[in-house]
Amino acid sequence: NQSLAQLDPEVSAAVDAELARQRDTLEMIASENFAPQAVLEAQGTVLTNKYAEGYPGRRYYGGCEHVDVIEQLAIDRAKSLFGAEYANVQPHSGAQANTAVYFALLKPGDTILGLDLAHGGHLTHGMRINYSGKILNAVAYHVRDSDGTVDYDEVEALAKEHQPKMLVAGWSAYPRQLDFARFRAIADQVGAILMVDMAHFAGLVAAGLHPNPVEYADIVTTTTHKTLGGPRGGLILAKSEYGKKLNSAVFPGMQGGPLEHVIAAKAVALKVAAGEEFADRQRRTIAGAKILAERLTRPDATEVGVNVLTGGTEVHLVLVDLVNSALNGQEAEDRLHEIGITVNRNAVPNDPRPPMVTSGLRIGTPALATRGFDEADFTEVADIIAEVLKPTYDVEALRARVSALATAHPLYPGLK
Ligand code: PLP
């Protein structure tokens, strides 16, 4: 019964160092967030010891009476939060949720139509060396050169040409709301199943600040750890007619025992996401992203020719476009890291620079909004970022401004 620090000082020290890193820096990776302490607590419980293959009330192991209560709570909360007829809370990750959907409803060689990875799509939407691209016949649609938004006319033309079994909407790097009604209409024209992967914007949907894809799609998948702010994991929502096939594709099709400690943490996160404090946080998340887009593109902001894709944002992230700038994505990411701001470089559509360098940055506001940042704080963050992108900048002065923001918003004050 030794503590982690006693039993394994090496792992313990690295965990402590990671907590310090999260506290002392400004986390702006758009897919990250800070799970509430109650979520961390649920995930660190004895539930990790329990095997529970099957579903609540129909398990292949004894002793599941308590994990049944927990998993049913998670299912009921997911359904009620998003207005879904069916929920499966067992996928270990977003990628596994998507793969389980394909496994449930498609056969090898079937055609899917999804957003190109280089235009903001996800690996699991048909990337060449992902399982989805290897097993399925993946066709990609794109964003328009003219304004960076999804080219719905191309989606429709490709759908008619390729007759996909499934149309996939959703993104990892795209700053606008999607037109779900248009996707539904296109899917209906060719008799395709419509799947929406809302991994990035599920928290905005939960807060009522983004159209709800559940009202349009046959299947909706998500991660639980991005804007939704829960533990790392996946979730599938669907019309009830798909439930039986989806259940058996997740287990026994793709996975063995569910991670009931993670499912408990998902249940807690879904409870949090139904509350008013969560909605306020999502409002600050979007407001922060809009402030970044506006301030970074002011004519005199950076002196190096920074644009943002689509000219702004409606969600929790901004895609900085450095195509016309001497500064590349790698240099910009490194400079921000140097002053304590964590972001990721990101290829922009038709990026002239190589994938390890890129001409873009993806900057997200969910984690800082969770930390309590308001519009004044995001204004200061935007101005710090603009400063560091200038040809010359004062590292020490910018580090001090980052530190002041971090200190003003303590992270996990209850954790030692
Ligand atoms: N779907 C989308 C749209 C994503 O952005 C991501 C992760 O970045 C995933 C799925 C995969 O989630 P995970 O990393 O949990 O497998």
TrEMBL record:
One cellular component term from this protein's GO annotations in UniProt: cytosol
Residues annotated as binding (6S)-5,6,7,8-tetrahydrofolate = 117, 121-123, 241
Positions bearing N6-(pyridoxal phosphate)lysine: 226
Cite a single GO MF annotation: pyridoxal phosphate binding
Looking at the record, the residues that make up the Serine hydroxymethyltransferase-like domain are 4-385
Known EC number: 2.1.2.1
Extract the Gene3D superfamilies matched here.
Answer: Aspartate Aminotransferase, domain 1 (3.90.1150.10), Type I PLP-dependent aspartate aminotransferase-like (Major domain) (3.40.640.10)
Cofactors that this protein relies on: pyridoxal 5'-phosphate
Q: In which pathway does it act?
A: One-carbon metabolism; tetrahydrofolate interconversion; Amino-acid biosynthesis; glycine biosynthesis; glycine from L-serine: step 1/1
Give the reactions, separated by semicolons, that this protein catalyses: (6R)-5,10-methylene-5,6,7,8-tetrahydrofolate + glycine + H2O = (6S)-5,6,7,8-tetrahydrofolate + L-serine
Output the Pfam families linked to this UniProt entry: SHMT
Q: Does the keyword Membrane apply?
A: no
Q: Tell me the superkingdom of the source.
A: Bacteria
* Subunit details: Homodimer.
Q: Indicate the family of this protein.
A: Belongs to the SHMT family.
This chain belongs to which protein, by name? Answer: Serine hydroxymethyltransferase
Native species: Nocardiopsis ansamitocini
Q: What is the phylogenetic placement of the source species in the record? A: Bacteria, Bacillati, Actinomycetota, Actinomycetes, Streptosporangiales
What's the encoding gene here? glyA
